[in-house]
Design brief:
This protein is an all-alpha fold. Helices cover 59% and strands 0% of the residues. Helix 1 packs antiparallel against helix 2.
Length: 144
């Protein structure tokens, strides 16, 4: 999935999850910033030499490690929740791609795909991201 689409999906999910508990606009603005900044953490492997894309950073172990690290550093449930959900949504949406991800590597080398219907940057991804953007806009309108 493209970077901007990972951010859009994470925004929709995070805002939908946050609203029942924190419907105040300032909190949603902070959560939105955290989400946009962290939705692509798993793709840090693209910039690291000698690290394979969709390797360790695209596993459940990395997600758990980052989630625990962020909470221990910030002691903020809001921040940790937004980062954790953003990271998890990145992994889930990459699981919908043709290539999939190896959720449990190195315990298994099997690549898991939830839906073999979209290619990165393709029309299916664009439609899905557009639907998520629509949901995000509806959530924001509810706050205003």
């Amino acid at each position: 999935m493209l970077k901007k689409n990972h951010q859009i999906v994470a925004l929709a999910v995070n805002t939908g999850a946050l609203l029942p508990f924190h419907p105040q606009l300032p909190t949603v603005i902070i959560a939105t910033a955290i989400t946009i900044l962290t939705a692509n953490i798993p793709d840090i492997d693209i910039k690291l030499p000698f690290v394979k894309h969709r390797g360790f950073t695209h596993t459940i172990w990395s997600w758990l490690l980052v989630s625990l690290l962020i909470y221990s550093l910030t002691q903020s449930k809001l921040c940790a929740s937004m980062v954790s959900l953003s990271y998890l949504m990145h992994l889930i949406t990459d699981s919908f791609s043709v290539a999939g991800i190896k959720w449990f590597a190195p315990l298994t080398t099997k690549s898991h795909t939830l839906f073999k219907g979209y290619k990165v940057g393709g029309p299916t991804e664009a439609v899905f991201a557009s639907l998520c953007l629509g949901c995000y806009i509806i959530f924001i309108i509810q706050i205003l």
